[in-house]
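hey m, so remember when u said the tokens were messed up on ur end? i reran from scratch. heres the input so u can diff it against urs
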Amino acid sequence: MKKRIEALMFSLCAGLAMISQYIREPNYDSDFLWSIAIGKWIDLHHSFPVVDSFSWTINGKEWMTHEWAYSYLSYQMNHAFSSLGIYILSLIPMVLTIYFLYLIATQYDENKSYAYILVFTLGIVLLYLLALPFRAYIYALLFFTILLYLLYFKDERNFDFVLYALLFALWANFQVSVFIGLVVLVAEMIRQFVLYPLKRFRVLAITALCFISTLVNPYGYKLWTYFVFVISTMDVTKASISEWQAANFHVTWVLFTYLGTAASVLFLHYNRVSNKADDRAKECAGELKKLPAKAGKIKTSEQYNNFIQWLKTFLTRETCLIIGFWFFYIYALYSVRMFVFSLILWIVVVCYFVGKIRRLNFGVKTYYILLLLFVVMTFANLGSADFSVKDIFSYKKNVTPIEEVAFLKDNPSYSQRIFNEYIFGGYLILNDIPVFIDARADSYIKFGIMQKYMDITGLKQDPQPLLDELGVENLLITEGVLKKYIDINPQWRMVFSGPTAFIYSRASVNQ
């Protein structure tokens, strides 16, 4: 069987198995809801938002959506196919990511066995166990994987310039994490620039083209200013956003996953490092002898040759991938979001090591057994879901307060200048109710609303003066310390008690 067909079959079966799990039990957060709302706005106005129009707290303030392409596609797919369209939109990058990772893994199959297949499968399961499917972020995983493929595993061709430019142009319109890709690109291009003099023009041209390609988006250079804002300012209040926090190591499986991935790389690396260095040194020595013949009149000193030889021995493709894994792994200790990139590199690195272990010699039967397992998982998940796609807008009541929002739409006076909890913002926006705050944390941090929200919900001091200052007239809150405070505050009265949240209004308003 050809490797590309084999990879496609594996990717499709694995992707369907993962998506079927989400069909059985949808998993998403409010980011997904505001994405659809923004896509609806773009489709309605035939333009791109440059100021906020979804809240009453920062209405009219400068704002940009760096995920506009995903938002627009999610709205169109949902409009055309309802909830099924969202699953299709998530399945596409999932299958393509697995496909390119599989192609990478097979290049390390020196023993012509399937030793890598079990590790690869485990990595894929972990990757999508930790990554939400209904987010623009899964497209970032795809673009990151394709970048690794282009940089390290694809044969060089004249049209590579177009592929790199297209990749970064797409990435810049789907997710601001394109700057992570630029960091990886620059690191590898510096290595090639130093080690391979004959490639320097190509290296510089591709790097420049990729930087320029990131400007091919509706906001141009402002995407760069947004990134600078994220890394320089948002760090102040990132502790309030779970995906920017460190992983919760009190959860056993999380601790096991983090330590297990690191331990596997350490063990396999030191088990083979000496033999690999010797082999690579011989290979580099042969390459250096050929260099003067290719370069013509290029002359280098013996000392320079020795230095380049050492660099080629040390800075191999695999060493760079291992270093990349550790960089993302260490960063993941401070921001859990980075761990998915670390896992992608873990899959590649561990498949590299395992593919060279002669004691492991799994036959093609292992491949077919896993395909069968994925098929069984798919039908088992769909069977428990009655072969029906759940309505993703109503499944998670803690994110979508359906009855409460229905009450607000029937009684619009209670939705005026409403203070809502962070997690409800996306559903309110989707229902055209201006919010106090939602999951577009960047803008609320920039204009100070996030801090005010934390001050009110944290009850570090009496929140009533702040509610008065902001002109809050209604509340949509859940059980907690804020509700206990409001219940004993004579300035507020409950007007609706729902299964998910409670609606309060000022005692002197709407009477």
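this time it looks ok to me. The mean pLDDT is 88. if urs says something different then somethings off w ur setup not the seq
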